[in-house]
Amino acid sequence: MQSLPGFRDFLPNDCAARNYIFARWREVCRRYGFVEWDGPVLEPTDLYKKKSGPEIVAQLFSFTDKGEREVAMRPELTPTLARVIAAHEREFKKPLKWFSIPQCFRYEKQQRGRLREHFQLNCDIIGDQSSGADVELIALCIDLLREVGLAADDFVVRISDRAAWDRFLPDCGIGPEKKADFLNVIDKLDREEVEKIQPKLELFGVSVARLMAFLANANLEWFAPLREQLETRDLLRYCEFNLRIVRGLAYYTGVVFEVFDRPRKFRAIAGGGRYDTLIHQLSDGAVDFPAVGFAMGDVVLGELIKEVPSARKKMEEAIQWQHDLQIYAVIAKEERRPDALQLIQTLRDNGYRVDYSLTPAKVGKQFQTAEQLGARLAVLFGDEWPQLKLKDLCTGDQSLVPREELPARVATLLSSRA
Ligand code: HAM
What we know:
alpha+beta; 5-stranded mixed sheet; 42% helix; elongated; binds histidyl-adenosine monophosphate
């Protein structure tokens, strides 16, 4: 039996890589004053039908539960966040700065960097409509990537603003009912030839020349406040401004951004934007808060880390550290097993990572296992009892230690080699 297409088994090394990414994410989010929360994996299908937009709805893992409810496994977290905020907003002082690491499910065509499940770091600020909040999130996103060893040569944050199109469309006589279709054409501008775009634009009564003139002017002036704040933080070199980016999700209302690897080998590493009306809509008008956020996926980030040597080295060292044992207890005489277990317990109580053979084994085999497990020290329980032979597996140095002095001696050796 194989796992389903697009679903991953996490073997120990994969789990260690995942833990590494999650740990860096949590560390940086806390540095920015964000607190962690979570929601349910299963939600009413309607939540996404109403809020996420047709692309995600077509990818839902949805079914009827035993209580005849139409339910879906979460494809993203933002609708859940809006629902939770609408229900609990009185309990918290605004602005809220929340992060979460949900596993999300989308029935997509499986390829490198795109699976049917992925983990997503979500970071959102609720209750602040300043451009300062937008920039705070862009800065957080950049710092998350720098933290894993990626630099300005490796990724770019492409920033746009849907509000600019809200100005342009009425000027061209395009009504709100046609906005989504028009933005769909804009979304493909970077990828399609002008000859292909022209007839599509003409359907909306817009000429290529008019569109290009708008882009040239608006790109310059529209982003001045963001540009200035990013410059102050010395983050401008990570960013590009481009109104052609509109993003697929239906609920964005203002600034939107996406992060890509510079060579564009992968799908987006992260994406987000402002969704100032979503909470209002979900609470049927009872609650109204501006909001802005983004999500970063573990799949693309993991692929990119493997591509960039400095980032890969950082991750490999961290993984090694997660696996490495500090002490292996070698039980040379079976009658010493109870004494060994007592001392192993004491060492573990002191916080050391300790292992030993659960069944009798030859001494040479036990030393071999100690090395395979990356143990730094081996403690031999044998003829020398009540003394123990302590061996440094890196240097080969050996010494005899009275059993009651073992914890102190281990502490000295491990700290001197840290
Ligand atoms: P999104 O752009 O749909 O945004 O997803 C965010 C990130 O999740 C993507 O950039 C990508 O790295 C990762 N991702 C999405 N789908 C897959 C997949 N099938 N396989 C692997 N990785 C994937 C959102 O989900 C918004 N809710 C983000 C947001 C938060 N906006 C405001 N707050």
